Fold:
Amino acid sequence: MDLSGLAAVDTAGAALLVELIGAERLKRIGDLAPELPGAKQALLQTVAEAMASPLTPTQARVSPLISFLAQTGKHVEALWQQQRMLLSFIGLTLATLAATLPRPRRWRITSMVAHIQQTGLDAILIVSLLTFLIGAVVAFLGATVLVDFGATIYTVHLIAYAFLREFGVMLAAVLLAGRTASAFAAQIGSMKSNEEIDAIRTLGLSPVELLVLPRVLAMMVSLPILSFIGTMTGILGGAVVCALMLDISSTQFLAVFQRDITLRHFFIGLAKAPVFAFVIAVIGCLEGFKVTGSAQSLGEHTTSSVVQSIFMVILLDAIAAMFCMEMRW
Structure:
């Protein structure tokens, strides 16, 4: 190949020459074309050397401990950002609620009633069945332990305290967290993917007022009712087991219940229901707003809404239990 007539060359042309005549021959460009200017010879020789020994990126070895700490830091930071966003969204929801309450014409009564049916009425059967079975299981466990001490009558106290204070509202909240929070996230996420929320903003409407408030208020109405139903059916399940397995008649069960169980425990359990309902609804709506548009994002945020809701319900219930224990309630 005669390179003496090479008038102009760039790196792409030099790479083509390397492919044609080889990098080793092009390195000796001074012997092949001594009449070329020094700048062209230097360019050709540099490209030939670079292509003769391509650079392979090397990854530095990272200690497993440092990698674990780095991943832990990323997860903690993501959790912190998520909690900040949740607090901001709670503030936005409360501000919108405060601005809407004095204006009855802006209330979304039809939407709220529809969501009450979806979140409350349609969930009565599953909540009743689950709490009835859990009540029976609690009675079985209590009888198994207390029979060794001849104190099977205290199974009534165990059932009453468990369902009036904890299990009634907790089981209903967990069921709604899995059933309703995911539905809220999927509904709002689908609207986000279809750009319906952008259309709502274009019309001058508030998505929080239009989509979030009816769901939050519906949950705050439904969950206390479901908690009451769950508490009653759980106690009923325990009473059935006591009557069939422990020879504690329904009359004796009710007599012990009326004599030893105060109404305070019922109010403590029921007071937690609106708080749980608000948190579950807000988390479900927030995760729906965080959907980016793909099916994968919709699935991830729907799953995240369930996990976060259940976690927050259990965390708040633990805090409430410790508070009541310190206050001796």
